[in-house]
Amino acid sequence: MDTNNWRPAQAEPAMDGGDWRTQLPPDSRQRIVNKIMDTLKRHLPVSGQEGLHELRKIAVRFEEKIYTAATSQSDYLRKISLKMLTMETKSQTAMPSNLPSNSAGNSKNPPDPGKEKIYQ
């Protein structure tokens, strides 16, 4: 009970999980938000300061959600890493299929009707 009175604001959400959170330096969380930002910038189109500000808000909300839900520091890092890896994988899978379809779509659509008429 004494620990509950000692720091109620930090321990209120999850008393058991509060221990690992108090041991995590705040600058670590900021570095993680920056890494999330780097990943988002690589995979989402951003234009101007407003776009960067929106990405920062997304990164901060995501980090906060994982931080709150995680049961330990390793769980926190694992969940963030898995999400970033999933984003990388989905982006790599989507990009090759998008590029050929876009380039094929741009070059294929106009010639196709003409080719069909020529060959028919």
Please characterize this protein's 3D structure.
- By secondary structure, the chain is mostly helical.
- It has a single domain, classed as Coactivator CBP, KIX domain (Serum Albumin, Chain A, Domain 1), CATH 1.10.246.20.
- It has helices at 2-6, 8-11, 15-23, 26-43, 48-69, 73-108, 111-119.
Summary of the model, kept short:
With 120 residues, this protein is mainly alpha-helical.
Summarize the helices and strands and which ones pair or pack:
Layout: H1 2-6, H2 8-11, H3 15-23, H4 26-43, H5 48-69, H6 73-108, H7 111-119
Notable characteristics:
transcription coactivator activity, 120 residues, MED15_KIX, mainly alpha, single chain, 0% strand
Distance between the termini: 86 Å
- Give the H and E element order: HHHHHHH
- Portion of residues in beta strands equals under 5%
Radius of gyration, in angstroms, nearest whole number? 23 Å
> What is the typical, i.e. mean, pLDDT?
75
Helical residue percent band: over 70%
CATH topology: the name is Serum Albumin, Chain A, Domain 1
